[in-house]
Amino acid sequence: MKYLLTVFSLLLLHVAQGQDINLFGKAVCKTTIKTLYYRFDEQPFNTQQFIQIDRSNKEGNRILNSYSIQFKEDKLRAHKFLYFSHTLKGNKDTVFVAQNRINLIALFDLVDSLDKDEAVLSVTNDLFLEDNFEQLIGIKRTPSATEKQYIGTYTVSSNFSRGTTTIQLDDSKIYHSRHSNERDSYFFMNEEVGIWELGTWNYNSSYPALKIKNIYSFNRNIGLRMLPADVGSAYDIRIKEDRLLYPTGSPSMKELVRK
């Protein structure tokens, strides 16, 4: 997985048990919202459980509403799911309901698997309140005749964490990668989806490369999602003769192995 530390980071710090858990991110909506509501399990949304939006920024035809809230760890451990909504009525569409929830059991299963002196302090989670996430990341494109030779499934080991990354470059130019080790993946988000196309290497334009960009990261087990960041949501896979060289850490590169 290719990410630098950003304000969207999931920070792993040395902290004591029972600490505060900070959840933060962008609530993506078609309009500016002032309040974000939350509920646990089968509770209804109510006026007592809300988050005041910190700020809102327009990006294209969407508004990114920044939110942040802290919970005591024990409070979160007492529930199975945490849901978010920008209305008290919530959303009746089951896709949006599931899309805007965090599986707390899965989250703490992962937290408990960390080394004894590590625990989660801050968890980033962007909410897609009105956009179907799967449709948003699944825009189809047509590859050129030259690009078609790179369609396939590849694997590579990582320099950053234990495990193997599987990369798919499909015939609609959608890039998908999945890291085998959920625990050691960056920010607990072990999957990425973006787009790929043929271009030139960022460090030397005389070399061809596959440009991977507009990368969304997520963890389908926990329900965490993250918008493409300003830094780290694009990278190049260098083409050297008939080999694809994947960046596994500056300045290291490893060859992708086609399955």
Tell me the Rg in angstroms: 19 Å
Mean pLDDT: 88
Strand content: over 45%
Instruction: Give the total of beta strands.
Output: 20
By oligomeric state, this entry counts as single chain
Q: Please count the helical segments.
A: 4
What string gives the helices and strands in order? EEEEEEHEHEHEEHEEEEEEEEEE
Instruction: Give the fraction of residues assigned to helices.
Output: under 10%
Structural class: mainly beta
Distance between the termini: 19 Å
Q: How would you characterize the largest beta sheet?
A: 10 strands, antiparallel
Shape designation? globular
Spans where pLDDT lies below 50 across 5 or more residues:
1-16
Compact overview of the structure:
This protein is mainly beta. It is 9% helix and 47% strand.
Task: Characterise the protein shown here.
It comes from Sphingobacterium yanglingense. Keywords: Signal. Residues 1-18 form the signal peptide. This is Outer membrane lipoprotein-sorting protein. This protein is mostly beta strands. 9% of the residues lie in helices and 47% in strands. It is built from four helices and 20 strands. It has helices at residues 73-77, 94-99, 104-112, 133-136; strands at residues 11-13, 20-29, 35-40, 50-52, 55-59, 62-72, 81-85, 101-103, 119-124, 127-128, 152-157, 164-169, 174-179, 191-201, 204-219, 224-226, 235-240, 243-249, 252-255, 257-258. Strands 11, 12, 13, 14, 15, 16, 17, 18, 19 and 20 form a ten-stranded antiparallel sheet that branches. Strand 14 (191-201) and strand 15 (204-219) form a beta hairpin. The longest helix is centred in the middle third of the chain and has 9 residues, at 104-112. It is globular, with a radius of gyration of 19 Å.
